[in-house]
Amino acid sequence: MGKFQVMDHPLIQHKLTIIRDKNCGTKVFREVVDEITMLMAYDVARDMPLKDVEIETPIAKTTSKTLAGKKVAIVPILRAGIGMVDGIMKLIPAAKVGHIGMYRDEKTLEPHEYFVKLPADINQRQIFVVDPMLATGGSSIMAIDALKKRGASNIKFVCLVAAPEGVKALRAKHPDVDIYTAALDDHLNENGYIVPGLGDAGDRLFGTK
Ligand code: PRP
Ligand code: URA
């Protein structure tokens, strides 16, 4: 079974409180989502393998560590996942970015896929799927289905706020996927929104409501 980790570092918790506040405007919301994602990426990348390389410092020859493993792909689930791409890119600038477009039907809460564009070698990459919200789990499950259908196997899912219902569903459908979240909230309301949550992540990031 993959990992499930709530990243409760004080800086992450503090910043999450800023974006949960309904009075937080689009500019600050976007900036703080970026900062939280960068803080999370630091720990999500903790198990990236290293290898030894020989280098020469200004003083002496030495053996030092460099990243060894698979190359990375960041895959945001559109739209809201876009807000989490730069935070990871700041730490892993060589990562390629794939996009999966997904929207939830407001009535049925069923996800609908409308766009998939991935790096050609996605099956050889360590993949970070990013989406601020894990609610029913429908969108993340379908996005990871789409990745696996194309040969991807090494997948981590990174979100900001998760509902217990979504965590359970995602772990049941994709038990191999590690899940990282900044918060595990209480429940989903009758409209499929996470309580207390932070509202509609896409609308808050892009100012569309
Ligand atoms: C939101 C969010 C997730 C999804 C989570 O996207 O960004 O993708 O809902 O809900 P689920 O776990 O129940 O599937 P939304 O469908 O609102 O699309 P948007 O990002 O384009 O606003
Ligand atoms: N999608 C969101 O953007 N917010 C929620 O609370 C649930 C799904």
From TrEMBL:
UniProt-listed Gene3D superfamilies: 3.40.50.2020
Residues that bind 5-phospho-alpha-D-ribose 1-diphosphate: R79, R104, D131, P132, M133, L134, A135, T136, G137, G138, S139, D200
Catalytic activity annotation: UMP + diphosphate = 5-phospho-alpha-D-ribose 1-diphosphate + uracil
UniProt cofactor note: Binds 1 Mg(2+) ion per subunit. The magnesium is bound as Mg-PRPP.
Pathway connected to this protein: Pyrimidine metabolism; UMP biosynthesis via salvage pathway; UMP from uracil: step 1/1
Regulation: Allosterically activated by GTP.
InterPro entries membership: PRTase-like, PRTase_dom, Upp_B, UPRT, UPRTase/APRTase
Keyword annotations from UniProtKB, A to Z: Allosteric enzyme, Glycosyltransferase, GTP-binding, Magnesium, Nucleotide-binding, Transferase
NCBIfam families reported in the protein's UniProt record: PRK00129.1, upp
Function: Catalyzes the conversion of uracil and 5-phospho-alpha-D-ribose 1-diphosphate (PRPP) to UMP and diphosphate.
Protein name: Uracil phosphoribosyltransferase
